């Protein structure tokens, strides 16, 4: 009852306790950009200088044509003209054309260097940015509460951390910077064009909005078709995927022909869509070609007219054509970039969803000694209640004291709340306000540093997870410097040393996809060894010997008993025999403790524990009578 | 350790990288040949496009030499008209050739996809066991895509740019051969530099891809292992290790970019070098009145524009080199032969997987016999069955038990002829299974899997999968037999409701019930149940158990059981451990033996008693 009333208060407390910053779209972008902006700024400056140099070459060529080969005076600034006069003027240059050629080569070298530096800086910035994003995301995900992991699909999160990160990188490092570059390029081109002939420059400039506008229109139009093609590629891919995963079903029902037709149909449909899209794209590109071709023609004709009536020199005309060709491509590209930039917003939002999710946090304003107290104390559950979804309690008003150094056994069916109780203790799930409290040595676990708390509670999970590393690295995951002796010692206590040394590479055997597949029992025992290296004062074995046969189970328990020392131990199991040596046993059902006491007391009580004990023990004693020994509950299933 | 895995990964990649003669292109002939007409059309158009690209600067030359040089506008009308005409031809040519290029890409890809998909339908399960779904899937989807794309666009880029380069050289030689030769000195330099850098780039790009998949893998592990990381307080360690990979990625990517930028820089320098050379020597020639200013200008344009196409041609060649990896993988799939194949005589009589001759099919009665069967998985090195004999008369209920991964599926795989015995025979109705077609056998088997597999589509489509011509009454009867009416009623469109990709919109239990109904609807003579009821609640399970027992009467059945309590009255129980049958008999006999089965049974019993108590 109590947790139902406490719900609103708890959620209010939760939202008030928001720890990390909440990022807006811009804020998020800025956050990732921190530490790499200088790359981009330097790159843009470099790109300005490079463009300037590129623009100088047509000027030099123009002077060569007009003033060296032709007879027009130089139009350079006075100090340049003065230098030319100093070395012997046009006559000298006419006989020493190599000077101009060298000048161009020198400029070309400078351009090449600047281009290298510019692009390299930009890429360095881009890679650093992407590195920031993925590292921030990874460590943030590590710190997110366990409930968050339960609520979100792995595939979706990975998608956000890889594809969306990539898209944001492209947006910032390629699209944003190329917009800046293109604008610089356009500005400089137009500057030189206007400085030579404002009439022609005006014609060239007027075409810019037309080309950009057309380009944006084209790319957004194409975008819709791309979506359709993408969707259909997805369908085709799914058909193939389902055919492969369901290959047994296909064969067992003999439906190869049907599958072939289904794939064929979608394959043809998808191909048709693509070909249509290619047709459209070709048409659009063609139209773009015509627009820029007409612009060139207009400038060619007008330029010729102006040259004929002497308002433009031949050199200027040639230079003008160079600038114009420098202008056209970036402008067409700009439209494309602008139309694609809109997609980035969605990706930023998808990343923001992760970064704005609240991480786990510790309570504030707690006295320092309570953050890291001595953990060798009694564990007390005081009226603890918990539910994942409102109104359906998983743990309901549980009170329990576990004496320091004692062993507690928990018996209960799946879903009775035993695992949740353990997760509440190490705060994988935080207790809400007014839902009771859990103390260790008198200190509320909510007050403790959560990492300190977990370091001191060694826990072997029901379904052990091993990392795709070597077995040695898995066991020593909590301490990189762990000596091999310690690793092996832990493994032999968990009775897995022998199995490991039988592998070809022993402790260096890789686990998981790239290596050996361990059996369920081997996994569980490796996880036990890993936990033992923590040397924690509190140890929890959550049904962690279920895949091990009874004999090994007993052996491990005996080994543990010798080596656990002062530790407080909590054992969760289905096997009565496993629990028989516990100091205290509780039986849980539907979130409640229904029985508690020493094994002897519970036997005396004659309740559920006794019942299970009788059934399981009777299996061992009366097997000769075969099925007669089976309880009615199981018999009931027979037909 | 990350060092180790990286080496392992690259070694694996290296192994796949086998050099085929001529970049593996001859292997593609069957897929290219049908589209030869389109390809020839595209090549011709590309040649035309290259030539027009060369003609266009001549307009500039003419305008400067004639109008500007001679101060006259006499032919301006012709000039505009001709320019427009060329522009139109060029645009039409470009448009059409890129459309054709797209067609070539898509058609080649489509044909290869179809061929690989169809081939996969005939491959035996040993192929599926040795290769993950993800791996096979990317053969059908990615490799074909890459081959189609690269073959088509490399061809287009190659032809277009080659024709432009050759045309430009010819044009320059015609205008002034001495000046042209001067420019041509740069061409080999550019080509060599391109080849060098392209080689480096291919190598580094491969490393970047490897690191990329490693990073995705790390994310996957970081997310699925979150609970373990938290309880072990290994967050720091995970972060450190991730950052190590992440930093290496950054370093490699920057290094890749370093080579790419050097490449770009070199090409741009070569272009300007050509311009400088032309202006220097060409300037003298022009001053001496041997060449007009407009001609100098167009020569400059040619010289400058020639360097980039060289880069593109080199790129096209290197793309063809890299695509051979994909060709190799694709070819290996296509050349894999099924180790379970019907003989020509059998196909002659019973038809193949796509063209069954149902009129010749005999009815299947249901006697199965293993006669001296020895079996070793094609990728294994140990016999999992040796001289195994078992008679399963029609109507017998065979149960197979053992731990997860013990090899319980082997027998079932043999019965279904998903694999064939290494030696010995499996007889169906007294005749060797190989005497009839696979499709004949499969059409008579009802198969329900542990992880039920539904296809995207409606409930009805899925139910009809095994028997497309069933009537609505028959469907409903089958659904009722497994007590799945509730599921259908709950769905908003009843039988026409969508089940989602792989049946994702349904729970595992619901999927199991439907796949069960699907098998029943097919009315098979032999039933195979693979732990079929593991995700259904106890009440429903009881209902289904009843239905199964009713339906299995009179049919031969093989049940791979997880809950041992459900198979206690099987006619024969086979106990499997480490891939071998270690015990065999009825429940009572096996319990009395006090062997492995006894252990399995008691352990499970302890867990089941817990469930029974709390219900």
Walk me through what this model shows.
The complex is a heterodimer of chains A (639) and B (615). Chain A has 639 residues and is an alpha/beta fold. In chain A, α3 (37-69) packs parallel to α8 (154-196) and α9 packs parallel to α12. Chain A has 2 domains: 17-355, ABC transporter transmembrane region fold (Up-down Bundle), CATH 1.20.1560; 373-622, Rossmann fold. In chain A, the strands form 2 sheets. Chain A has a 6-stranded mixed β-sheet with strand order 6-7-8-3-9-10, with helices on both faces. A 4-stranded antiparallel β-sheet of chain A has the order 2-1-4-5, covered by helices on one side. Chain A has 24 helices and 10 strands. Chain A has helices at residues 2-16, 25-33, 37-69, 78-86, 89-95, 97-143, 146-151, 154-196, 198-245, 247-252, 256-308, 314-355, 368-371, 418-425, 450-455, 471-475, 484-493, 497-502, 520-532, 550-563, 576-579, 599-605, 608-621, 632-635, and strands at 379-387, 393-402, 407-412, 437-440, 443-444, 457-460, 538-542, 568-572, 584-589, 592-597. With 615 residues, chain B is α/β, with parallel strands linked by helices. Chain B has a domain at 25-335: ABC transporter transmembrane region fold. Helix content of chain B is 64%, strand content 9%. Chain B has a 6-stranded mixed β-sheet, with helices on one face. A 4-stranded antiparallel β-sheet of chain B has the order 2-1-4-5, with no helix packed on it. In chain B, β4 and β5 form a beta hairpin. In chain B, α3 (36-70) packs antiparallel against α4 and α17 crosses α19. The interface between A and B is large, with 161 and 168 residues.
What is the total tally of β strands of chain B?
10
Query: Major beta sheet of chain B, specifics?
Result: 6 strands, mixed
Distance between the termini of chain B: 48 Å
> Would you identify the regions of chain B where 5 or more consecutive residues have pLDDT less than 50?
1-16
Q: Specify the CATH class of the domain at 25-335 in chain B.
A: Mainly Alpha
Number of strands of chain A: 10
CATH topology of the domain at 25-335 in chain B: ABC transporter transmembrane region fold
Oligomeric description of these chains: heterodimer
Question: How many domains comprise the coordinates of chain A?
Answer: 2
Sketch the major β-sheet of chain A.
6 strands, mixed
Rounded Rg of chain B: 35 Å
What is the second-level CATH architecture of the largest domain in chain A?
Answer: Up-down Bundle
- In CATH, the topology of the largest domain in chain A is named ABC transporter transmembrane region fold
Rg estimate of chain A, integer Å: 38 Å
Structural class of chain A: alpha/beta
Cα separation of the termini of chain A: 42 Å
């Amino acid at each position: 009852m109590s947790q139902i009333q406490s719900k609103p208060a708890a959620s209010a407390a939760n939202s008030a306790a928001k720890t990390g910053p909440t990022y807006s779209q811009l804020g998020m972008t800025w956050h990732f950009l921190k530490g790499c902006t200088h790359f981009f700024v330097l790159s843009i400056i470099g790109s300005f200088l490079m463009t300037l140099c590129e623009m100088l070459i047509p000027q030099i060529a123009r002077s060569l044509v007009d003033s060296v080969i032709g007879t027009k005076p130089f139009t350079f600034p006075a100090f340049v003209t003065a230098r030319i006069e100093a070395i012997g003027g046009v006559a000298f240059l006419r006989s020493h054309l190599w000077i101009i050629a060298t000048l161009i080569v020198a400029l070309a070298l400078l351009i090449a260097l600047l281009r290298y530096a510019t692009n390299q800086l930009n890429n360095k910035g881009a890679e650093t940015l992407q590195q920031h994003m993925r590292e921030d995301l990874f460590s943030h995900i590590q710190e997110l509460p366990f409930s968050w992991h339960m609520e979100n699909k792995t595939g979706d999160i990975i998608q956000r951390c890889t594809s969306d990160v990539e898209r944001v990188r492209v947006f910032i490092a390629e699209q944003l910077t190329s917009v800046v570059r293109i604008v610089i390029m356009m500005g400089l081109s137009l500057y030189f064009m206007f400085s030579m002939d404002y009439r022609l420059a005006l014609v060239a400039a007027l075409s810019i909005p037309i080309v950009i506008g057309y380009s944006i229109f084209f790319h957004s139009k194409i975008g819709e078709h791309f979506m359709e093609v993408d969707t259909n590629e997805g369908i085709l891919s799914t058909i193939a995927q389902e055919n492969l995963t369901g290959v047994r079903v296909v064969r067992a029902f003999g439906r190869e022909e049907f599958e072939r037709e289904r794939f064929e149909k979608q394959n043809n449909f998808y191909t048709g869509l693509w070909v249509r899209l290619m047709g459209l794209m070709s048409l659009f590109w063609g139209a773009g070609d015509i627009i820029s071709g007409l612009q060139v023609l207009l400038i060619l004709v007008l330029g010729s007219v102006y040259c004929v009536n002497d308002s433009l020199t031949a050199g200027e005309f040639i230079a003008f054509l160079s600038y114009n060709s420098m202008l056209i491509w970036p402008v067409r590209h700009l439209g494309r970039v602008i139309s694609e930039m809109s997609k980035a917003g969605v990706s930023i939002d998808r990343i923001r969803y992760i970064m704005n999710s609240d991480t786990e946090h510790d309570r504030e304003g707690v006295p320092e000694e309570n953050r890291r107290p001595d953990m060798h104390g009694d564990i007390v559950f005081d009226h603890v209640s918990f539910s994942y979804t409102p109104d359906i309690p998983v743990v309901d008003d549980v009170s329990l004291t576990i004496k320091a150094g004692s062993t507690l056994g928990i018996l209960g069916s799946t879903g009775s709340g035993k695992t949740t109780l353990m997760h509440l203790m190490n705060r994988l799930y935080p207790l809400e306000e007014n839902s009771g409290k859990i103390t260790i040595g008198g200190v509320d676990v909510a007050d403790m540093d959560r990492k300190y708390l977990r370091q001191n509670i060694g826990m072997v999970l029901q379904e052990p997870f091993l990392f795709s590393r070597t077995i040695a690295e898995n066991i020593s995951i909590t301490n990189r410097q762990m000596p091999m002796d310690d690793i092996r010692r832990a493994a032999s206590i968990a009775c897995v040393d022998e199995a490991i040394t039988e592998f070809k590479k022993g402790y260096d055997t890789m686990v998981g996809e790239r290596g050996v597949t361990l059996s369920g029992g081997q996994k569980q025992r490796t996880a036990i060894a890993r936990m033992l290296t923590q040397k924690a004062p509190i140890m929890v074995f959550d049904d962690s010997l279920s895949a091990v046969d009874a004999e090994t189970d007993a052996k491990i328990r005996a080994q543990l008993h010798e080596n656990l020392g002062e530790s407080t131990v909590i054992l969760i199991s289905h096997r009565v025999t496993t629990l028989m040596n516990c100091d205290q046993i509780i039986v849980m059902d539907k979130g409640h403790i229904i029985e508690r006491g020493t094994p002897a007391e519970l036997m005396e009580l004659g309740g559920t524990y006794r019942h299970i004990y009788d059934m399981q023990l009777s299996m061992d004693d009366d097997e000769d009578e075969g099925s007669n020994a089976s309880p009615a509950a199981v018999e009931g299933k027979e037909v | 350790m990350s060092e180790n895995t990286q080496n392992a990964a690259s070694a694996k990649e290296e192994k796949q990288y086998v050099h085929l003669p001529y970049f593996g292109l001859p292997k593609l002939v069957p897929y290219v040949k049908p589209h030869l007409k389109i390809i020839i059309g595209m090549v011709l158009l590309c040649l035309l496009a290259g030539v027009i690209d060369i003609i266009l600067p001549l307009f500039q030359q003419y305008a400067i030499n004639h109008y500007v040089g001679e101060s006259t506008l006499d032919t301006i009308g012709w000039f505009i008209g001709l320019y427009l005409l060329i522009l139109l031809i060029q645009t039409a040519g470009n448009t059409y050739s890129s459309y054709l290029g797209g067609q070539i890409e898509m058609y080649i890809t489509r044909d290869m996809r179809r061929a690989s998909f169809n081939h996969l339908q005939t491959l035996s399960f040993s192929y599926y066991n040795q290769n993950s779904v993800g791996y096979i899937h990317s053969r059908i989807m990615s490799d074909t895509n890459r081959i189609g794309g690269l073959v088509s666009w490399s061809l287009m880029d190659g032809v277009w740019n080659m024709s432009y380069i050759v045309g430009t050289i010819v044009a320059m030689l015609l205008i002034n051969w001495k000046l042209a030769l001067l420019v041509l000195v740069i061409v080999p330099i550019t080509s060599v530099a391109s080849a060098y850098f392209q080689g480096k780039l291919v190598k580094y790009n491969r490393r970047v891809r490897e690191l990329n998949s490693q990073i995705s893998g790390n994310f996957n592990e970081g997310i699925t292992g979150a609970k373990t990381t938290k309880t072990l307080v290994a967050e720091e360690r995970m972060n450190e290790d991730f950052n190590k990979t992440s930093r290496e990625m950054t370093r490699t990517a920057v290094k890749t970019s370093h080579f790419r930028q050097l490449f770009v820089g070199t090409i741009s320098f070569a272009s300007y070098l050509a311009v400088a050379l032309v202006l220097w020597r060409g300037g003298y020639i022009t001053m001496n009145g041997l060449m007009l200013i407009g001609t100098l200008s167009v020569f400059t344009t040619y010289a400058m524009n020639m360097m980039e196409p060289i880069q593109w041609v080199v790129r096209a060649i290197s793309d063809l080199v890299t695509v051979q990896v994909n060709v190799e993988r694709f070819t290996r799939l296509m050349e894999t032969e099924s180790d379970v194949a019907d003989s020509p005589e059998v196909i002659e009589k019973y038809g193949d997987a796509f063209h069954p001759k149902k009129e010749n099919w005999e009815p299947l009665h249901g006697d199965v016999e293993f006669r001296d069967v020895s079996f070793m998985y094609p990728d294994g090195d140990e016999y999992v069955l040796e001289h195994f004999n078992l008679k399963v008369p029609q109507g017998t209920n065979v149960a197979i038990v053992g731990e997860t991964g013990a090899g319980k599926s082997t027998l079932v795989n043999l019965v279904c002829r998903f694999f064939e015995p290494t030696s010995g025979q499996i007889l169906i109705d007294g005749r060797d299974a190989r005497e009839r077609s696979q499709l004949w056998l499969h059409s008579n088997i009802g198969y329900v899997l542990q992880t039920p597999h539904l296809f995207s589509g409606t409930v009805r489509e899925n139910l009809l999968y095994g028997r497309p011509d069933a009537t609505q009454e028959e469907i409903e009867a089958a659904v009722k037999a497994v007590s799945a009416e509730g599921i259908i009623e709950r769905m908003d469109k009843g039988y026409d409701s969508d089940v989602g990709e792989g049946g994702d919109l349904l729970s595992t239990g619901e999927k199991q019930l439907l796949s069960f109904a699907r098998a029943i609807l097919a009315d098979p003579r032999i039933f195979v149940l693979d732990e079929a009821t593991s995700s259904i609640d106890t009440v429903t399970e009881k209902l289904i158990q009843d239905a199964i027992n009713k339906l299995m009467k009179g049919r031969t059945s093989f049940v791979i059981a997880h809950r041992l309590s459900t198979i206690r009255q099987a006619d024969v129980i086979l106990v499997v451990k480490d891939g071998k049958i270690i015990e065999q008999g009825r429940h009572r006999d096996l319990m009395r033996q006090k062997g492995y089965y006894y252990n399995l049974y008691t352990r499970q019993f302890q867990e089941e008693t817990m469930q029974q108590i709390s219900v």
